[in-house]
Amino acid sequence: MVESLNTKSELVINGTSHMGLADYGKIMVGDKAFEFYDDRDKKNYIQIPWTQVEYVVVSVMFKGKWIPRFGIKTKSSGMFTFSAKDPKKVLRQIREHIDADNIVKSLSFNQVVARGVKNLFHRKKKK
């Protein structure tokens, strides 16, 4: 049995982990960590302590009307991507534990393409 890092659960909501194939389960935001538990496989879980979170990347569409998914970038393990039934509620709870400056909006499709084109023509010379 998996033991939670949290002593108090602030929000439990249905969510999806997008690590490889989509895993459906519960997202739990607590006083000490962000946790995801798979519904089908109890051994499949993700626990991210608040001290390990570097920043949160939010994908925003239609001028903030729809948030399809968000990612949590950790200091050591990389990026974890999730979606939730009510992502705004989850992000409001995360904002209580993470500084608002560390919650950023992801790049749009046009920004990614423009950056790629710019990098093609402005490559830095290696020394």
Verbal overview:
By secondary structure, the protein is α+β, with helices and mostly antiparallel strands. It has one domain (9-121): Pleckstrin-homology domain (PH domain)/Phosphotyrosine-binding domain (PTB) (PH-domain like, Roll), CATH 2.30.29.30. Helix content is 17%, strand content 43%. Strands 4-3-2-1-7-6-5-8 form an 8-stranded mixed beta sheet, with helices on one face. The N and C termini lie far apart (53 Å).
Which keywords apply here?
single chain, PH-domain like, 2 helices, eight-stranded mixed beta sheet, 8 strands, alpha+beta, 127 residues
In short:
The protein is an alpha+beta fold. Helices cover 17% and strands 43% of the residues. It has helices at 87-95, 109-121, and strands at 9-17, 23-30, 33-38, 45-49, 53-61, 66-74, 79-84, 103-105.
CATH topology: PH-domain like
Number of strands: 8
Binned, the helix content reads 10-25%
- In DSSP terms, counting alpha (H) and pi (I) runs of 4 or more, how many helices? 2
The CATH homologous superfamily corresponds to Pleckstrin-homology domain (PH domain)/Phosphotyrosine-binding domain (PTB)
